[in-house]
Amino acid sequence: MNIALVGFIIIVILLIIILIYLLTIKKNISNTANKNQVKMNIKLFEYDLNNIKFPKNIEQMNSDSLTKASKVIFDSYKSLDYANKVSSCLNKIEWHTWQVSIILYFLKTKGKYYISNDVKLFHDVILELNENQIEQEMQRVCKKYMENIDIYKDRDYLSNQVIWSARDVSIILYKIINS
Question: Which residues have a Cβ under 8 Å from the Cβ of 89 and sit 6 or more positions away?
Answer without folding.
Answer: 82, 166
